[in-house]
Design goal:
By secondary structure, the chain is an all-alpha fold. The chain has 12 helices and 2 strands, in the order ααααββαααααααα.
């Protein structure tokens, strides 16, 4: 039996990053009805911009701030200009539009950055704590703790603030909310911007924890956050949060098994399929009982 303990920390860190992105996806969907499939590309672009700035001698922390802010601005611009024309379209059409945006960003990144991209190692990765089998650096600790803070803060914000109440109202009925005098575009813009900041921050953490490979940051890795959101039915923030951690831990622990390590990227798909099948079976059983 392989030793699973060394992979627990990286699994928790990855799960935390997936959770943070998943929470951003859920909040945005509940507010605007858009399942944003471009979040991986937004985070990837931010990490590449940070890498370039640092490579040209800019201050590291300024570069990280620019990367996070870029995620918010890009997402806001998309939501501000393309959100209203697509507001009344089918959810699949809105999701496909964000996928098109992701492909545009991917094409730009592959044109601008080639083999000169090495790695983006955050300074916090050099601050480590070791005890027996446990070895954790500050970047990994941030990946575990910060998403929990974000999730708790998001839940409290949606329940207790006026803007949060407006977001919840938009999720229930956009037209009636507008008739009540709620500034719909401002509320939606807030959701786009804040979710973009989370995507930008997630991109930085993933680039440091995993790799700077453009396609992986754009699609392969962020799929885990999407799977967690789907397990939460793109509604429940807490289910999304815990599902993301489960996916991250399973994905990391598979590295301990040589025969299974190459299949670790399938973890989000398998988890999502199992849960969705269970939802379907449960619905059938409840339908028969009714």
């Amino acid at each position: 039996m392989p030793d699973l303990k060394p992979f627990i920390v990286i699994g928790l860190a990855l799960g935390g990053v997936y959770a943070m992105s998943g929470v951003g996806l859920v909040v945005l969907f509940r507010t605007t009805g858009v399942l944003n499939l471009a979040y991986g590309a937004v985070g990837a672009l931010g990490s590449l911009v940070a890498f370039t700035m640092i490579d040209h001698g800019q201050n590291e922390w300024v570069a990280y701030g620019v990367a996070i802010l870029l995620g918010g601005v890009l997402t806001l611009l998309y939501g501000w200009f393309l959100g209203p024309p697509l507001a009344d379209r089918d959810p699949l059409v809105k999701a496909s539009a964000t996928l098109g945006f992701a492909l545009i960003l991917l094409g730009f990144m592959q044109w601008r950055w080639t083999a000169d991209v090495r790695s983006l190692r955050l300074p916090t990765s050099d601050w480590q704590y070791t005890w027996d089998w446990l070895r954790i650096n500050v970047t990994q600790a941030i990946g575990v703790v910060f998403p929990l803070v974000v999730t708790i803060g998001t839940v409290l914000f949606l329940k207790r603030s006026k803007l949060g109440a407006a977001m919840r109202a938009l999720a229930d009925d956009r037209e009636n909310t507008a008739l009540l005098g709620v500034p719909v575009r401002r509320v939606e813009a807030s959701a786009w911007f804040v979710s973009g900041l989370l995507f930008g921050f997630s991109g930085l953490l993933l680039a440091s924890l995993v790799s700077m490979e453009i396609a992986a940051l754009t699609f392969s890795i962020p799929i885990a956050a999407l799977a967690a959101a789907l397990i939460g039915k793109v509604e429940s923030i807490w289910v999304t949060f815990f599902a993301a951690f489960v996916i991250g831990i399973i994905q990391a622990e598979l590295n301990a098994f040589r025969s299974l390590a190459e299949f670790r990227n399938m973890t989000p798909f398998v988890c999502a399929i199992i849960v969705l099948l269970w939802f379907g079976w449960r619905r059938q059983v409840e339908g028969r009982e009714a």
